[in-house]
TrEMBL record:
Full protein name: 2-hydroxyacid dehydrogenase
Domain D-isomer specific 2-hydroxyacid dehydrogenase NAD-binding: 116-294
Source organism: Paenibacillus cisolokensis
SUPFAM superfamilies, sorted: Formate/glycerate dehydrogenase catalytic domain-like (SSF52283), NAD(P)-binding Rossmann-fold domains (SSF51735)
Family as reported in the entry's similarity comment: Belongs to the D-isomer specific 2-hydroxyacid dehydrogenase family.
Length: 334
């Protein structure tokens, strides 16, 4: 390759790309163009000029007609983040430029977080931790707190969404003897079985599940899919976990549902995000907010840089790319 242009701010680059990943990338091209200062329109144009490959991430500019004119030989864009929608333009699609996303790296973290939260919420860890501060202990003790403890065995887990995170979550659940339900209109009943789940309607899923995990994309069809109707159908002692986007949950309907019954909720995302100081979500005793950490955080972000270097090596050698995005399905992706 003649040139790889890294169209990302230095602060993002240092969080996502370790020195070893940058060194691997530099060996793949005659020039690895890395910005030393925050990106500007002029700086972005200079960086991408003459490049065959471009690397983007959070806060990168959209690759519009003007920028693409600077790189007529651009063949591939590798997005060192999840959704490619902020950087993909109609001009990029029209030119047939390949696009790679690191969503698979982020989805692995989301799925592992989903499994961890499923286990600890069923185990009633937070209630127990609060009560032990006052001296309570639950070994061989029978009371209301202990009666809420459940194992990941013989329960029903509902997964909403079979994108990359949803599929990884379903894969992890295969290690447990549980009944797994899936709602995803893009997945057939046969495909769901291969994923280890049974395809059902959203109404059946929320009514039957002990844990409902939301991993669907943020698209118009999923706006407030967790609403008055679906929340009312949930079991009284069920657990709702949202690791997707805040807009998928109608928070006012959720507040009304929490006023009746003992539903428990874990939200990694809210709408708006973050909720303002003093917001009811911050203080409700049956709501846990985890601050949008389900994906990759701190050292986990460096796995993204390694993945991008891996993909560039595969591209250079003509191998299949594991993170290539089908832009014809962009409207269905998160």
């Amino acid at each position: 390759m003649n040139k790889i242009a890294m169209l990302l701010n230095p602060a993002v680059r240092s969080r996502v790309f370790a020195a070893a990943a940058l060194e691997r990338m530099s060996r793949l091209a005659n020039e690895l163009a890395v910005p030393a200062e925050p990106l500007s329109p002029e700086g972005s144009a200079a960086l991408i000029r003459g490049a065959e490959a471009a690397v983007t991430s959070w806060m990168s500019p959209q690759l519009n007609e003007e920028l693409l004119d600077e790189a007529p030989d651009l063949k591939i864009v590798l997005h060192a983040a999840g959704s490619v929608k902020p950087v993909v333009s109609e001009a990029l699609q029209a030119r047939g430029i390949r696009v790679v996303s690191a969503a698979s790296v982020l989805s692995r973290g989301v799925a592992e977080t989903a499994l961890g939260l499923t286990i600890v919420s069923l185990k009633n860890i937070w209630d127990i931790a609060d009560r032990t501060r006052d001296g309570d202990w639950w070994n061989n003790r029978a009371d209301e707190t202990r009666s809420r403890i459940r194992e990941l065995f013989g329960v029903t887990i509902g997964c909403i969404g079979a994108g990359q995170a949803g599929r990884r979550y379903l894969e992890l659940l295969r290690h447990f003897r549980v009944d797994v339900l899936l709602y995803d209109p893009t997945v057939s009943a046969e495909q769901a079985v291969r994923l280890g789940a049974r395809s059902v309607s959203l109404e059946e899923l929320v009514a039957a599940s002990d844990v409902v995990t939301v991993l669907a994309p943020e698209i118009p069809a999923t706006y407030h899919m967790i609403n008055e109707r679906t929340l009312s159908a949930m079991k009284d002692d069920a657990i709702l976990i949202n690791l997707a986007r805040g807009s998928l949950v109608d928070e006012q309907a959720l507040r009304r549902r929490l006023e009746r019954g003992s539903l428990r909720v874990i939200l990694d995302v809210t709408d708006p995000e973050p909720p303002p100081s003093g917001h009811w979500l911050r203080t409700h005793p049956r709501v846990i907010l985890t601050g949008h950490i389900a994906g990759a955080v701190n050292n986990g972000l460096l796995a993204i840089g390694d993945f991008i270097a891996d993909e560039l090596e595969r591209y250079r050698s003509g191998e299949a790319l594991t993170g290539e995005v089908d832009l014809l399905r962009l409207h269905l992706l998160a």
